[in-house]
Design goal:
With about 425 residues, the protein is of the alpha/beta class. The protein has 14 helices and 15 strands. It has helices spanning about 1-10, 25-35, 50-60, 70-75, 95-100, 115-130, 145-155, 170-180, 195, 200-210, 250-260, 280-290, 380-395, 405-425; strands at about 15-20, 40-45, 65-70, 85, 105-110, 135, 160-170, 215-220, 305-315, 320-325, 335-340, 340-345, 350-355, 360-365, 430. The strands form 2 sheets. The chain has a 9-stranded mixed sheet with strand order 14-13-12-11-7-10-9-8-15. A 6-stranded parallel sheet has the order 3-2-1-4-5-6, sandwiched between helices. Helix 11 packs antiparallel against helix 12. Residues about 1-10 have low confidence and may be disordered.
Length: about 425
């Protein structure tokens, strides 16, 4: 926090930002302005949904002239802010990112960068040519524990990195919410699961591997369980009407309605009522008529529920990544990094290093005061990401961005290579074919 204060001292006025896409991520990132009004001010909003954009307009007291129902309206005006937060759906990232770069706005772009390799490259080229900063929303790069892992690797604490083992447990109801019933369930409408959910993780592995290039990759995965043939006998098409709902762990009544009855109106309940605040009546109506009330065995989902990716980097460093839907914990990543002098392990809470020579274990903690500010998504990393972005813009210092254009592009290209390996059932030698 001391660094944030010293950076803030150099600021003569708050960084002015425009939020493009007032959904979950746009709203979360904009909270930074409410916590630190001396550092950031939201001066514009663009979203096609009246309720969503009006909500943010009222929260941040945005002038009516700077409220838009599409991002094109923003670009038609003279530049009136320093930066734009692009938080549109995955398939709607490239066009606004390129347009805002050409207008001279610095850009925070929610991950993934885009849904094709060519679009990712075009975004990076536009930002480079326009001389604007690009930060991609790889929030885990800003997690103090993740930063501590990188510091320990770079300090040589475990010697040379030999192997990285990394697990993303998505969480059983999180997957049902987002990837069976929700916005990321269908590749044609959003993107494949490895890109939508796990580009974070491939990026971290790429980051921990250092300057080494990935030379080959293989991957396996499929849609398990959430298929029509798994539907229990007698089950209805909607949970509100289902006679066997009580025996289903994925019941929408359990995931949403019970929560709002308990007074919990945060995620995921907050997502399912796009035109109103959630209460028992609006949530019931959403489950009766909207996508989140559907039986998980009758949805149009086609993204992998479980996937593994095996990678080999230059110098023989290997890595293995697993993503699985069916877990108790939600997104509490688990990592083991084997080095020539020791082993580093991370359980989602603390970092531990075992030294082969001394045979001693040392626990490492990272300072994190983001919890004091109420912006603690992704273990506090959401707060740290926004702090870094605002500091970078305020001080015109791209070195403060840990998820900048070139390295993020390389990790995204690796994601596309891995998915190609899965689809083609073969080992892909990275860079051997043109991406599309």
């Amino acid at each position: 926090m001391g660094q944030n204060r010293s950076q803030a001292a150099n600021m003569t006025a708050p960084v002015r930002v425009i939020v493009v896409g007032a959904g979950g991520r746009g709203e979360i990132y904009s909270q930074y302005a409410s916590i630190n009004p001396e550092r950031m001010k939201v001066v514009g909003i663009a979203d096609p949904r009246k309720f969503a954009r009006t909500k943010l307009q009222q929260q941040h007291k945005i002038l009516e002239e700077n409220v838009f129902d599409d991002w094109q309206g923003v670009t038609e005006k003279e530049k009136f802010a320093d930066a734009v937060l692009v938080c549109t759906p995955d398939r709607l990232h490239k066009e606004p990112a390129v347009a805002f770069a050409k207008k001279g706005y610095h850009i925070l772009l929610e991950k993934p960068m885009a849904t094709t390799a060519d679009d990712c490259k075009e975004i990076v080229a536009a930002c480079t040519q326009s001389g604007v900063m690009l930060m991609v929303g790889h929030v885990l790069r800003y997690d103090p524990a993740i930063r501590k892992i990188k510091e320990l690797i770079d300090a040589g604490v475990i010697g040379d990195v030999v192997h990285i083992q990394h697990l993303e447990p998505v969480g059983y109801y999180h997957f049902a919410h987002s990837f069976v019933r929700g916005n990321w369930r269908n590749e044609a409408e959003s993107s494949f699961a490895l890109l939508a959910k796990s580009c974070h993780d491939i990026d971290l592995i790429h980051h921990w591997a250092g300057a080494r290039k990935c030379v080959k990759v293989s991957s396996f995965g499929s849609v398990s369980h959430f298929r029509k043939e798994s539907k229990p006998p007698g089950a209805a098409s909607r949970c509100l009407d289902c006679p066997v709902e009580g025996d289903c762990p994925y019941s929408a009544c359990k995931i949403y309605l019970n929560r709002v009855k308990w007074g919990d109106k945060g995620w995921p309940v907050s997502v399912i009522c796009p035109n109103s605040y959630p209460d028992i009546e609006s949530v019931t109506e959403a489950l009766r008529t909207g996508p989140y009330g559907r039986c998980v065995y009758e949805c149009d989902n086609d993204v992998c529920t479980n996937q593994v990716v095996n990678m080999e980097f230059e110098g023989g460093v290997t890595a293995a990544f697993s993503m699985v839907a069916f877990t108790e914990e939600l997104c509490k990543r688990k990592t083991t990094i084997s080095g020539s002098k020791g082993e580093l392990s991370y359980n989602g809470h603390e970092v531990r290093v075992f030294d082969f020579l001394t045979q001693n274990s040392t626990k490492h903690t990272a300072d994190d005061n983001s919890w004091h500010f109420g912006m603690h998504g992704h273990g506090g990393a959401d707060y740290h990401l926004m702090a870094a972005f605002i500091s970078a813009v305020a001080n015109n210092d791209p070195s403060l961005i840990r998820s900048g254009p070139e390295e993020t592009l390389r990790s995204h290209l690796l994601v596309f290579e891995a998915e190609r390996a899965r689809l083609e059932s073969r080992v892909v030698y990275c860079g051997d074919d043109n991406q599309s």
